[in-house]
Design goal:
- The complex is a heterodimer of chains A (309) and B (253).
- With 309 residues, chain A is α/β, with parallel strands linked by helices.
- Chain A has two domains: 221 residues, Rossmann fold (3-Layer(aba) Sandwich); 67 residues, Alpha-Beta Plaits (2-Layer Sandwich), CATH 3.30.70.
- In chain A, the strands form three sheets. A six-stranded mixed beta sheet of chain A has the order 6-7-8-3-9-10, with helices on both faces. A four-stranded antiparallel beta sheet of chain A has the order 2-1-4-5. Chain A has a four-stranded antiparallel beta sheet with strand order 12-13-11-14, with no helix packed on it.
- In chain B, 77% of the residues lie in helices and 2% in strands.
- Chain B contains ten helices and two strands.
- Chain B has one domain.
- The chains are: A alpha/beta (309), B mainly alpha (253).
- The interface between A and B is medium-sized, with 35 and 27 residues.
Chain lengths: 309, 253
């Protein structure tokens, strides 16, 4: 895969001295889905806005398809589609007209067949003559996507596409994103919902306080930073962990009725066999066993907390 | 040039106008008729002629200018303010367009709308008074230039405004008084000498005078000065718009 978006040392400093982006460097491959995770005010929207031309960067360079976003802004912007966080649409305009407007604005000639295809894919075709104000919130979000796709962009930015939508719509949106990826579109999405990143992203970037803390393959990240825990439910509660088990660094939880053992799945030995044998020799009786894999959310929370410390 | 983008902006803006076509059409017809009733019948019965032109006909250029200026400003200011207000400006800022293309689209649409209103008022006036236009091409050119310059001015107001009150502030408190005091309904030669001198500081005087010259071949100030004034206003507004886009003032963070 070739690089389609390159961000080098991007800094955005406001007049009051606040640095929303502190030298962000990022490279995105063609056809991938990158999820940018970060708490409120982390710089996610600023990063997208700067790449798209809504905000001007203070220093650094950004290229899209090899075109500099300042010197070659026309070519760079033609390749980009943006779905903003807020539902920003002319309420009195009809769906088809607002999509036509977007296509024309990006310099593309009329292509009613293409617009029909997009609207059908987004289940909006039967609403094409409706005014925006007559649509539901979910449909308005789809209109925003239709507008962003109207000029056939190669890179699509989705700024919190599922913020405030119900679970069903969120799943619908994920299907739309998956279909777009299948058609070869590169997608960069920002989200608060870690399950969203976990469900659809190829790579995950974590941004906090204007700094990109990491960008990594989702699976590799979860394997590298993920931990697995074994919970041992005891038949009788304990007051403290017996000395014989001290080498396992166990945690006594649930009012002494369970022991928690954290282990590394990549290690040569997990230590589980020895632990179970030692438990038996210590005379502890087990009522149940369960394991738990840490989620992307745990990793994210850990990273952001680490950065804040 | 991104001609497709210009056409899209222009068409989108004109669609707003066509949605309320009857209001756009009827409103100037009614207000013009009312002006003729008030100024033409009531005041006109006391002022027979101004420089050899019947008072009813004399006020036509002023009436047209009054509507054209206010319409050009309000359409252009609303045209760019509304996307800012509802947030759709993001699309304009992220599109492969430059400031000139954006301005041509918005100002072109506002100019067309104002020009349409001007022509409607001219046609309505012809129903009330016997109207002869000595320099029809100059009249159209003057009206067009006025529409363009005031639409540019309106565009600046639309970008400057941060709420609907501010959007109305300059047109109501500055432009309308300047137009009323700029000789719309009287010749400045009818004023006392001191006021004649003061009036000459009002740029609108030059625009209305030039426009009236195109109708009747007479003017309060030399036609050359009027041309200079309209060119100056247009140039100033263009510089203002260019600066706004260069610096991103109130549009780009």
């Amino acid at each position: 895969m070739s690089e389609i978006l390159s961000v080098r040392d991007l800094v955005k400093r406001y007049d009051d001295g606040f640095e929303a982006l502190k030298g962000v460097t990022l490279s995105i491959e063609q056809g991938e889905i990158l999820a940018l995770l970060g708490p409120n005010g982390a710089g996610k929207t600023t990063l997208i806005s700067t790449i798209c031309g809504i905000t001007e960067g203070t220093s650094g360079t950004v290229t899209v398809g090899g075109h500099d976003i300042v010197k070659g802004y026309r070519d760079a912007r033609r390749m980009i589609g943006l779905v903003p966080q807020e539902i920003s649409l002319e309420p009195f305009e009809r769906v088809i007209n607002t999509v036509r407007f977007s296509r024309g604005l990006f310099g593309k000639p009329k292509d009613e067949a293409h617009l029909e295809k997009i609207l059908r894919e987004l289940s909006l075709w039967d609403k094409k003559d409706n005014r925006i104000m007559e649509l539901s919130g979910g449909m308005k979000r789809r209109v925003l996507i239709a507008k962003a796709l109207s000029h056939e962009p190669e890179v699509l930015f989705l700024d919190e596409p599922t913020a405030g939508v119900d679970v069903e719509l969120r799943k619908d949106m994920w299907e739309i994103v998956a279909a777009l990826k299948a058609s070869g579109t590169t997608i960069i999405l920002t989200t608060h919902y870690i399950e969203e990143a976990e469900a659809i992203a190829d790579r995950v970037g974590v941004i906090a306080k204007g700094e990109l803390l990491l960008v990594e393959e989702k699976q590799a990240l979860m394997t590298r930073m993920g931990k697995k825990q074994l919970q041992i439910d005891l038949s009788a509660p304990l007051i403290e962990v017996p000395d014989v088990l001290s080498k396992y660094d166990l945690q006594l939880v649930q009012d002494g009725t369970a022991l928690l053992y954290t282990y590394d799945t990549r290690a040569e030995r997990t230590g589980i066999t020895g632990l179970l044998a030692d438990l038996a020799s210590a005379g502890l009786s087990m009522s149940d066993l369960q394991t738990k894999q840490s989620s992307l959310e745990d990793i994210f929370v850990g990273l952001v907390a680490e950065d804040a410390a | 040039m991104n001609w497709q983008a210009i056409r899209s902006i222009y068409t989108f803006e004109m669609a707003r106008f066509f949605r309320t076509l009857m209001q756009s059409f009827i409103s100037p017809v009614i207000s013009t008729s009312l002006y003729f009733v008030v100024f033409g019948a009531a005041i006109g019965s006391r002022i027979d002629q101004v420089d050899g032109v019947s008072y009813g006909a004399f006020i036509v250029p002023g009436l047209i200018m009054l509507s054209v200026m206010t319409q050009a400003i309000s359409n252009a200011s609303f045209g760019i303010y509304f996307p800012k207000f509802i947030g759709t400006i993001y699309e304009l800022l992220s599109a492969p367009v430059n400031f000139l293309e954006i301005v041509i689209g918005y100002v072109g649409a506002a100019t067309t709308k104002a020009l349409f209103i001007g022509i409607v008022i001219l046609a309505t006036s012809a129903l009330f008074v016997d109207l002869q236009i000595q320099h029809p091409f100059a009249m159209m050119a003057f009206m067009l230039l006025t529409c363009v310059s005031f639409a540019l001015f309106g565009f600046i107001i639309g970008i400057w405004a941060q709420n609907f009150e501010q959007l109305q502030l300059i047109p109501l408190l500055i432009v309308t008084p300047l137009v009323f005091l700029g000789g719309s309904f009287y010749s400045i030669s009818m004023l006392p000498p001191v006021w004649q001198t003061i009036t000459l500081f009002n740029p609108v005087v030059y625009l209305i005078s030039g426009f009236r010259w195109a109708f009747f071949g007479m003017a309060d100030v030399p036609i050359g000065l009027s041309l200079l004034a309209i060119s100056g206003v247009t140039a100033l507004c263009m510089i203002g718009v260019w600066w706004i886009f260069k610096t991103g003032w109130r549009i780009r963070k």
